[in-house]
Every structure is written in C-alpha cells, then in structure tokens.
C-alpha cells in the first residue's frame, strides 16, 4: 500500500527584498513530498533555506512561485491543525504550565473542564505533572521546551513543524529531548517536519533526511534512515549513515568554495 502524501511542495521559489530594494533568492525550484505520519528532517548549514521552507509549509510566509499543499489544500496561512514549535519556546511568562498548555484549547473555545482534563493528560505525557502550577521562569530550558510540546499536542494537530527546537539546550538535555520527541511521535503519529543543522540529531530522529544546500537554497539529496527505534548512536548502521551525510556536506562545501574562489 502506497503511503498517503500529507504535504506536497511543487517547484517552490522564495525571493526576499531587502530595505534597499535588492532581491535575494532564498529557495530555488524545491520539490518535496512528505508522507502521512512521517518524521522528516530538513538538514543543512546556515543559509540553506531550511527555516524558510518550514515557514512556507506552516503558512507564515508566502511562496514567490510554485505551490504547497497539505491534504491537497493550498497553504495560504497558518492553520490550527498545523502547530509550530520554535527554539525560543514561546511560552507566556504570566501563565502557569497548566495555563500555557491550555492556551490553544482556550482559543478554540473548549470548555474549562474539558481543557483542564486534556492539558493534564499532555502534561503527564511530557512528565511535568509535578510542575503544572509553576511558571516558565521556574523551569529549566528542557522543561520549558516540554511545555511547548505539550501545548502544541493538546490541540491534537495533524502536523508538527519544529524549527531547531533543541538548539539552545546543553548536550545531555538535548539527547533527552530527542528521546522524548521520538516517544511522543511514536504514541501520537503526527507528521513531523523538523529543522536541524545537527547530523547526529537528524539520523537519530528521522525516517528520511532532506539535505539542503545554499545560495539559493535547494534540495541536494534525500536519504532514508532504514533503522528501527530506539536508535543507538554507537551502532554501526547509525555511524555509516552519519558518515555518508557528512561526506555529502563536504562535497557541497567544496563546490561552494570552488564557485566563489
């Protein structure tokens, strides 16, 4: 049985204009299909357009040309069923953990009783039930990111867009959060598009890795990760895939240097 395409990107180009009226092409002729319930990573160095591509899929930016569809409907603006999690958490400092997780449900008009019950379930899922009455400043960075994940999951989205959500965390917390998001995805089976510049993170998380190259941003190659879960970072297959991606990056960097020298 062929997997259903959840997100379809066809010949997408994005051009930005600066204050001087000059134009810079951020993306060029991008084509990509993301399947239902797939965990996909957009991987690349700074300037390759991976965050721009994610923002286009999430509806925060408009394409200059081409089309993006989710469930065969064109993406024109953000949608409550497609939630985005950023690196800076985006929590409301005046709200408790419970109130932050309830926020999306509150906006949707869900009754107090129902949203409290739903929030409690997702707070428990991310392991923060003892901190439900705490405020963000009382939590570590990893805990705050778990609140952001719980808030996004509480509205039961079909798609999660994640823009380097663990980039500001220390290494050990980052590993724990990678384990956590893998577990949550396996339980909920949303479609996840995850932006990262970390090769190990992409290999640990993704079903497929979309490697992007810059100037302008484009898809260089797409690599499947044929490994089960949980994944062992010391496993031979893990290291082999990581080394292949590293070699792809080396070739890309060399070509860029040869072009500009």
UniProtKB/TrEMBL annotation:
Any Pfam family hit: ABC_tran
Transmembrane residue ranges: none
GO molecular function, one term: ATP hydrolysis activity
InterPro entries named in the record: AAA+_ATPase, ABC_transporter-like_ATP-bd, ABC_transporter-like_CS, ABC_transporter_ATP-bind, P-loop_NTPase
Annotated ranges, domain ABC transporter: 7-239
Keyword presence, ATP-binding: yes
Keywords associated with the record: ATP-binding, Nucleotide-binding, Transport
Entry protein name: ABC transporter ATP-binding protein
Native source species: Metallumcola ferriviriculae
Lineage per the UniProt record: Bacteria, Bacillati, Bacillota, Clostridia, Neomoorellales
């Amino acid at each position: 049985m062929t997997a259903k395409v959840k997100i379809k990107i066809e010949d997408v180009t994005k051009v930005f204009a600066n204050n001087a009226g000059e134009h810079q092409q951020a993306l060029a002729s991008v084509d990509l299909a993301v399947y239902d319930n797939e965990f996909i990573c957009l991987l690349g160095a700074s300037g390759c357009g991976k965050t721009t591509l994610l923002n286009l899929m999430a509806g925060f930016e408009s394409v200059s040309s081409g089309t993006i569809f989710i469930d065969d409907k064109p993406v024109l603006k953000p949608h409550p069923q497609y939630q985005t999690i950023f690196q800076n958490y985006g929590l409301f400092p005046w709200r408790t953990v419970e109130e932050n997780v309830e926020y999306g449900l509150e906006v949707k008009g869900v009754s107090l009783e129902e949203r409290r019950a739903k929030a409690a379930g997702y707070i428990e899922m991310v392991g923060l039930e003892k901190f439900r009455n705490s405020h963000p400043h009382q939590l570590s960075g990893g805990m705050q990111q778990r609140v952001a994940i719980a808030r996004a999951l509480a509205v039961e989205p079909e798609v999660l867009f994640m823009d380097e959500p663990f980039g500001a965390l220390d290494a050990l917390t980052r590993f724990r959060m990678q384990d956590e998001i893998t577990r949550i995805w396996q339980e909920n089976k949303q479609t996840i598009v995850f932006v990262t510049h970390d090769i190990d993170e992409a290999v640990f998380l993704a079903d497929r890795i979309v490697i992007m190259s810059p100037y302008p941003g484009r898809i260089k190659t797409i690599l499947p990760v044929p490994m089960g879960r949980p994944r062992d970072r010391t496993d031979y297959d893990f290291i082999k895939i990581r080394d292949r991606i590293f070699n792809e990056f080396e070739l890309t960097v060399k070509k860029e240097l040869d072009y500009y020298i």
